[in-house]
Fold:
Amino acid sequence: MSIETTLVPEPYVWTEPPLGDAKSAPTRFYTDPAVFKAEVEHIHLKKWFFAGRLEEVPNPGDYKALDSVGGPVLLVRGEDEVLRAFANVCRHRASILLEGCGHAKNIICPYHAWNYRLDGTLAGAPGMREVPKFEKPPHGLIPIRMEVWEGSIFLNYDDDAPSLMTHLGNMPELIGSHRLGDMVKTWHIEIETRCNWKLLLENAMETYHTGIVHAATVGAQRSVSFPTQGEWHVIQVQANRSIAVLGQEPPFPVIEGLSEQSRKGTYFTVIEPTVQFACAQDCMWWLAVRPIAVDRSVLSVGGCFPKAYTELPDFEERAAPYYKRWEAVALEDVGILEKQQIGLSSCLARPGPLSWRDDMVLAMNRWIMAQLPAHIVDGMAG
Structure:
């Protein structure tokens, strides 16, 4: 079947309860440490999360260290050119091994100098020859499940979880013509936020606020929604040109071969539970959220362009307006969400009626609640 017959945009996609009866989630959904703990156990340690792009670790010996809800992670490309993911902790006494991004011939623990090959096997452990029964093979780095889709790296702490492609469902159908695998990451920032992780993603999936919060930047927007299959959601902000820059003609042309529907605007997706890919007519940018505590999160914002664009002699000059827009809008959102988090802590705050433009907020809330134990969900309303 074609994209047009399987993914048809609608004014909004609404699920029970019906429009008019639906309300925002209970305040404890965003403020209760017990809810946050249950989300870590039943969602973040069991679902796929975005860890970066292949072009960040292109050559043997290249590595990238990152933090996750499950602890520190190390992506490293071996001498065999295979990319692997490991827990970034020494098998001796759990020191962090590497930080940031870089290149290494082997991995040496900075605490007691245990050292590992790039494939994670233990190469040396000073002083351990005197330890009875000690053998190297069982003490290599602990692998983390990894799958790659269109150049994007996803990790999962649950070896029994469905595959990444099952998780994505029919998402590749809708955004396939963007050819994300041919893109290159060129920019990235991280923003520490004082709000619940879900607020960042809810905000990213509704245009109700844009004419107010972003009055000085992107302004008012209108969107359509798409019903989906899999663990993801999507709206499309309608515009006949890229909205990835502010108040000017986009410096880059439309991606070659873009589908008719994709030319009509920018897709804002959420791949549950923690990442948005925003696909415009000329680029892609992401918002990835790392939960820290019930009221603290880290927001990662990064941008990608088709490789051919990055090879233009004036690429950096052309790309600058995109970076300015992505950072400015993200900071505006963080500012209002930190205020919302404070409001949610009020003993008088109550769930309010949802607008039809909150359809994806409701859909995401219902998805999350469906992953949690019944006693946690029931307790939120208590």
